[in-house]
Amino acid sequence: MEPAELSDVVKRLRRAEGQLRGVIRMIEEGRECADVVTQLAAVSRALDRAGFAIIARGLQECARTPAKGDGTTTEQLERLFLSLA
Questions:
Q1: Which domains does the chain have, with CATH numbers?
Q2: Cβ atoms of 54 and 9 closer than 8 Å
Q3: In 10 A of CB 12, how many CB atoms?
């Protein structure tokens, strides 16, 4: 996969990185547990979505050019997808 194809994923990951820094700051400031967990769940969802987007792009690439072969098979992508589920 080309890096340009994943620019939206990189943006999503940078946003999640900022959210995670916010969670760390909340913990250090002694914020309420429910608030921390809510924000942590948001970070987790953002990371999951980024992972799913990467796998979806990989599956699209495999479907477009199965003979090209970067070493990643559809079965490997399926296992990766299931590891996020």
A1: 3-84 (1.20.58.1000)
A2: yes
A3: 17
Region of residue 69 (phi > 0: left; psi between -120 and 50: alpha; otherwise: beta): left
Q: Which residues, 6 or more positions from 76, have their beta carbon under 8 angstroms from its beta carbon? A: none
3-state secondary structure of 70: coil
Look at residue 1 in the predicted model and tell me its pLDDT: 64
Calculate the CA dihedral of residues 5, 9, 10, 12 and round it to 10 degrees: 150
pLDDT tens, 28-85? 999 999 999 999 999 999 999 998 888 888 777 766 775 555 666 777 777 877 887 7
